[in-house]
Specification:
alpha/beta, five-stranded mixed beta sheet
Length: 124
């Protein structure tokens, strides 16, 4: 699925397209799960199955300044264990989870609004 914007946020990591096995950012194809923000990409993002996520899997998010974290859970929506949601709540950071396609679209929308957002994208 191609994702386009009329006025992409120049110089930021806008997700250009998403398929189940990859995302495109700045013309580069990412085939491993990744963490993306306006300024930075961490790939691969080593993580477990969504049901087995733990705080160690989220350690990389501490390197970002974020007001909202979006978790893309793959082809289907899955919810992580409650301690994952509590992890962000304790830090005062909003947390949403959705399938990865929706996470890519939501990330781009919030990025265009100049929000401090990061997306953790699980690719199948």
């Amino acid at each position: 699925m191609e994702i386009t914007q009329e006025h992409p946020t120049e110089g930021h990591n806008v997700i250009q397209s998403y398929e189940r096995d990859h995302v495109m950012i700045h013309g580069e194809r990412y085939q491993d799960s990744l963490i993306v923000s306006a300024e930075r990409i961490i790939s691969p993002w080593t993580q477990h199955e969504i049901a087995k996520l733990n705080q160690a899997d989220l350690a990389s998010t501490d390197e970002f300044v974020a007001e909202l974290v979006i978790l893309g859970t793959g082809a289907h929506l899955q919810f992580p264990p409650p301690p994952i949601m509590a992890y962000f709540q304790q830090k005062g950071i909003g947390f949403e989870c959705m399938d990865t396609g929706a996470a890519c679209r939501t990330y781009n929308l919030l990025l265009a609004e100049d929000r401090k957002v990061i997306a953790l994208l699980r690719l199948a």
